Amino acid sequence: MKQRLVFPRQKVGLICVGAISRPQVLLHSFLLFTFLLSPMAAGAVDITQQLHRPLNSSVGRQSRDEADSLLRIGEQQYASGYADKTIASSLRALELYHSIGDLKAQGLTYNLLAKAYVQLGSLKEAEDALRRGLAIARDTKDFQSQIFVLNNISTFLLQQGEFAAAGKTVEDALAIAHNVKNIEGEGLSLSNLGLVTARLGDYNKAIKLYENALIFRRQTGDAIGEANTLNNLGDAYLASGNYQDTIATYGAAMRIAKTNRDRTNELRAIDGLVTAHTAVGRYERAFDLLEQRLALAKELRNLREELKSFESYAQLYKQQGNFVTARNFYERAIILARTLEDSKQEVQLLDQLTKMLQRK
């Protein structure tokens, strides 16, 4: 029986609720790293099923079991916000998979490594992991992974300001998807081509690309992909200042994500709605949404998402001139940054707090 191809879901960082500018909105838009939620996100059982291959030697089986366990642990560490620990687990798993010559498992591990490096802001290392994964996909003629990784590399190129190269790379992915009649891949690639177009400032064309992508994603019943593309579409409307369509589109994304327990797209839609409602002065609604966001982060036991919620609260209170409450939320975010041992985030939060106190 032919195995159904599974494509990764996207994730976006928190859109700040302070003063809104088009470049700021687009910065978050093109940082939609496709691999942040990948087929590995299906869970520990699915990972084992993806990786399992019969091995003759007991030593080989023992190495595989240990590597599989490390990979599951790494995914759990990533989900909990511990990117540095994820990297350590993944590197050890990669070493074991290399020793038994399992290319498919190595490709999955490089994907997890890339996710963790992105979370830490180590983009050079993330790109290296992606390109190694692409080489494996080409060697094994794995068209699914080629489409997937090419989309990710396109996002890196876009983030580095290499617009032409980013567009060419995602077009290559779209061509492969079209040639092998992979509808999921076409939807994913069209959605990311919309990101490139939006980064170039052509929001109208980006909106059309997103609408085309939605057709493919709805054909396959890909609710998660649909929610993601709706979030992209919301970003384009937001960047163009069309707040009415922005709110409607993010709202649709949030409902679909909530129904399917797609927490990543649900959080992202909430972030977009907070930004849009804040832009039009609907602060009460923005605070209601932030309350939902924080509750969801706690339900997931995801400290990094809790941190983002606190930071967003701080920015919204700061914008209203309530510096005392804003300071409280900044301090709570800083505590979580220390708990996560994320010194870079801690420094950024301290800088924001210091600048706010100096302006009081």
Give a verbal description of the structure.
- It is globular, with a radius of gyration of 20 Å.
- α8 runs antiparallel to α9 (183-199) and α12 runs antiparallel to α13.
- With 360 residues, the protein is mainly α.
- Residues 1-55 have low confidence and may be disordered.
- It contains 17 helices and no strands.
- The longest helix has 22 residues, at 58-79.
- The protein has one domain (22-280): Tetratricopeptide repeat domain (Serine Threonine Protein Phosphatase 5, Tetratricopeptide repeat, Alpha Horseshoe), CATH 1.25.40.10.
- The chain has helices at 22-30, 44-51, 58-79, 83-100, 103-120, 123-139, 143-159, 163-179, 183-199, 203-219, 223-239, 243-259, 263-279, 283-300, 303-319, 323-339, 343-359.
Topology of helices and strands:
Elements: H1 22-30, H2 44-51, H3 58-79, H4 83-100, H5 103-120, H6 123-139, H7 143-159, H8 163-179, H9 183-199, H10 203-219, H11 223-239, H12 243-259, H13 263-279, H14 283-300, H15 303-319, H16 323-339, H17 343-359
